[in-house]
Amino acid sequence: MRAVRLTLLLAALLSACAPGSRATDPAPSTPEPALSTGPASTLPVPPDTPRALTIWVPPDLSPDGSGEAAILFAARLQAFDQAHPGARLQVRIKGRSGPAGMTEALAAAYQAAPSVLPDLAALDAVELAGAASAERIAFWDDMSSVPESWALADAILASSRTGGGVAGLPFAAEADLFAYRATAYTDAPRTWTDLLTGSTVFLLPLGDPTARFTLGQYLAAGGRLRDADGAPTLDRLALQEVLSFYVAARAGGLLPLTSRQHEGSDTTGEALLSGKINAGLIAFTPFAASAPGDLLPVGPSPTGDGQGACFVRAWTWALPSRPSGPEPLAVELARWLSDPEFSGPWTRALGLLPAGATALGTWPEDDLTSLAGLLAARCAPLPTPDDLALFGPILRQAAEAALTGELTPEAAASRAVQALPRP
Questions:
Q1: Phi and psi of 243, rounded to 5°?
Q2: Using one digit for the tens of pLDDT, what is the confidence trace for 84-120?
Q3: Nearest to 95 by CA among 107, 105, 84, 80
Q4: What value does the CA radius of gyration of the chain take, rounded to a whole number of Å?
Q5: What's the CA gap between 151 and 149, in Å, rounded?
Q6: Structural domains counted in the chain
Q7: Same domain for 80 and 222
Q8: Stated pTM of the model
Q9: 22: domain CATH number?
Q10: Separation between Cα atoms, residue 55 and residue 63, nearest integer Å
């Protein structure tokens, strides 16, 4: 039965990734011949002309260490070295924040010392969008299309696009899911009603400044962020439905006010893993690290209609805009590292979602693989940083006002609509 479920999930993911189904693509990309990402390089480098390629990655992707993911990454880099005589790879570890973090380091190098920019950088969806808007990366559409044979998930590919072009080459993704202990519910809760008729306290990150959870619930309820003219908008009734669910959960003693103190699934996930609560939001990576355990995944978070809501955030290889243009060997390296035959086992070891069905097909047939396929196929791409910055504070304030009883759901939704900037 498990094998049948996995086959169905893979088929759904492949169908979702069909070239004609990409709603975010302004026009179908021109298919290209299969790319060579194996040992037979199409870009040989003479041994007497050494080429140094610098790669920036966050700590979680470091090739140093004894873990399976680090060993796989280190071996892949070594194989690239061997297949490209004269190439010399240098990996630099950059934090996720602060002056030495990826975003600020890229900005500082771009402004003051372009010569020290990396040839390749691993960026998440938010970092990628910021770098693209600042014109600090080269678009992949300028050089090639993404290989169709990799069967990338629509939402993951969309999460790597900005300004109508492919800003980064996807190799992995992260998403949040709702999970619970078997003692909490008889059946997996998939609707608001399931949660409200239960007796289990659940925790949601309603203190998130960008209000991603509330935003996902609002969109699942039929809300929109932009009108026909592209102006920001909020559907009062859709938002009122979401806020009414929060109020009902609070009134039933199921949604604690401490939800306002949690700014993301990292802390709600910690509470879930530690046993402080028995149901709530958790990111795929810590859930994967804890499996097999006593937590059961619902998948996308319960919604009013039971269809679920979640956002996917792509991890991509980006080409910083260097004065001399992208290094062709860096393009080859990015494809080498994004090849599903490598990225599949690597993402499994990292506890990240694979970028598409081809990579997912390298995973073993188990429940974690089924969950990864479900999230990749069902989650929506994370809204743009501009939309998160605009709508996040407004929706967070609305949720807090309703949850604390300061305003009724109707009044809080109306105030949120009025808070939008007017043209």
A1: -65, -35
A2: 988 899 999 998 776 667 888 888 888 777 778 899 9
A3: 105
A4: 22
A5: 5
A6: 2
A7: no
A8: 0.85
A9: 3.40.190.10
A10: 11
